[in-house]
# Entry
Amino acid sequence: MADSIEKAKETAARKAVEDHFDPTARYVGIGSGSTIVFVVKAIIERTKERKEDISRISFVPTGYQSRQVILNAGLQALQFDSLPRGVVLDVAFDGADEVDEDLNCIKGGGACLYQEKLVATHARKFICVADHRKLQPRLLSQWKKIPIEAEPLAANSVLEALTALGSNEAIIRSGAMEKTGPLKTDQDNFIIDAKFPQPLLPRPSSSEGTRGTGVDKQWDVESLAREIKQIEGVLSVGLFSGINGFEAEEAGKKTGGQKPVAAYFGMEDGSVVIRKAGEGEVVFNKEGKLQKREVKE
# Structure
């Protein structure tokens, strides 16, 4: 089972890189987690095969682990805070813990959500790469908790506020060894994992009154993300929602898109399912040929 999951990640990564990596790019974001190892591997293999020179590209990591992946591959790493002012990344590749039908994501299982959000919101396009387990109609379907980065001093008051919002279990995440205390992020903060009793609606309801605003413990993604972010002491919320990079650009904003413009999922049968913003879903079989297309209404 583990081998098939890893193969699915690698298949999705290869297709995402084939479609979205541009060797003439100047800045490329590289996310965190096991899937991103395959993204970097695919970039290296592609450029060697095509004899492309990518020495001028700076790869921007979302944490310690992704920086090591970049450096170990012989690529040039550039910390986010060293980016020139006004620069927008050409593309950012990252994984997710769960992705819904509207391309909202839960991220932060690896505790890098703050830097992941910084990179995603400063990229012209964020490309999500994952295996088939992460493909769900709604968030909190299989991945039952929302990661939240919070100041240690405010952690207990954040827990109380999350309970008031309807969380049925909110806990401070422990480190790898429980005796060492809470896990610390790269920013030296705590991660709180908050469970909510119902899957989240993909988008705010326009016709059903208060549905999605917490009444009867039913939330939509964006409303809940906004309420959690307003809690004093919360640095970042592991819900990536709202607009994507293309939509931010159309609105005249240089940054601000949290959602991916496309998400690639490696399936058990070797195929790749691609969800694209505003376009629907396409499936490529294991031979790389178009197998199915579903247009979003």
